[in-house]
Amino acid sequence: MSIQKSIFGTIDGAPVEAFDIEAGQARATIITYAAALSRLFVPDGDGRQADIVLGYDDPASYVQNRGSAGAICGRYANRIADARFTLDGETYSLSPNEAPNHIHGGFRGFSKRIWTGEADTANKTVRLTLQRPDGDEGYPGAVTTTVTYRLTDDPALEIVMETTTDRPTVVNLAYHGYWNLAGHDSGHVRDQHLLIEADHYTPVGPGKIPTGELAPVAGTAFDFRASRPIGAMIDDTTQLPEAGYDHNFCLNENGQPLRRAARAVDPVSRRGLEIWTNQPGVQFYTANHFGKVPAVGKGGAVYDRHAGFALETQNFPNAPNIPHFPSAVLRPGETYLHVMRIPFLVV
């Protein structure tokens, strides 16, 4: 196992570092802009390596292109209605960066910042740290956040996100990577198969804000309880007006510290992955925005609609404003802890 550090590029004169990790048959690159996973190579059924995460070759492309590819999003990932919430009797106004709502922490949330990176070869990890002040994007409390990436010989990727605060606040971090198990440059993911361990999802209204209902997936386009192609119902615009998914699924309890959120397989390459987490939800998003403005990714690959899929383990969107959703409140003396474990499979 090895970790190598280099300069990935600069943003406004500030260096963006890259950390290359290799363990067993897998290798990954983590960059300090957005604490993003930029590359991840794993073998297929014939032992051939491919990079299975969407990303870019330079920092400027990460800044310019929509979609938070590979990024850690926060302080509150996903949406908060009307860009405000009330905590302990006080109402806080946030940046309305998806007016009138707030998404992914604001105009310059965690996914728009350069983090501090540190390699720990002894523990086989890369640890990234970000400190943000009280009032940042409207949030109360100065916070310190760390994200630790670990690549194991299995192979598997482990991501641990932690935050502390000096004032009561709300926190919901998410890893916003896009997967394409055939290789990031192979086109769409409609034929790849997905299972999501969820009997319910959160329907949305205007602005993709949850209505507050926990609706059964049975008999709908949201029923991935048995593995099926991602594209099986993706064009059913009666249920998916955007011709794509961007919805939160309420994960089933299993009584264990980590629950399996999802399993995905590419039947051609026979690559697969599972996602395990301690979070209550997962946002399934099929990169619909690339259909409006395609992006040029790594090696000149063109990312168009459904070029990848995201499985963002998380708290529920707009939880600070919906009392029966899981609490997102973090208080001084507590530590927000978000764990993901992603084993990679050959099927």
Structure description:
With 347 residues, this protein is mainly beta. Helices cover 2% and strands 43% of the residues. It has one helix and 29 strands. It has one helix spanning 59-64, and strands at 2-11, 14-23, 26-31, 37-43, 49-51, 71-73, 79-80, 84-87, 90-93, 102-103, 116-120, 125-132, 143-152, 156-165, 169-170, 174-176, 193-196, 198-201, 215-216, 228-229, 246-251, 259-265, 271-277, 281-285, 295-296, 302-303, 310-314, 329-330, 336-346. Strands 11-12-13-14-29-23-22-17-20 form a nine-stranded antiparallel β-sheet, with no helix packed on it. It has a five-stranded antiparallel β-sheet with strand order 1-2-3-4-5, with no helix packed on it. The two termini are 25 Å apart.
Summarize the structure.
With 347 residues, the chain is mainly beta. The protein has one helix and 29 strands.
Shape: globular
Q: What is the makeup of the main sheet?
A: 9 strands, antiparallel
Q: What's the count of strands? A: 29
Subunit organisation of the chains: single chain
The strands making up the biggest β-sheet line up spatially as 11-12-13-14-29-23-22-17-20
- Treating each run of at least 4 consecutive H or I residues as one helix, how many helices? 1
Helix/sheet category? mainly beta
State the helicity in percent bands: under 10%
Radius of gyration: 19 Å
Q: How much of the sequence is in beta strands?
A: 35-45%
**Could you give the distance between the termini?**
25 Å
Mean residue pLDDT: 97
User: Strand-and-helix sequence, N→C?
Assistant: EEEEEHEEEEEEEEEEEEEEEEEEEEEEEE
Low-confidence stretches: none
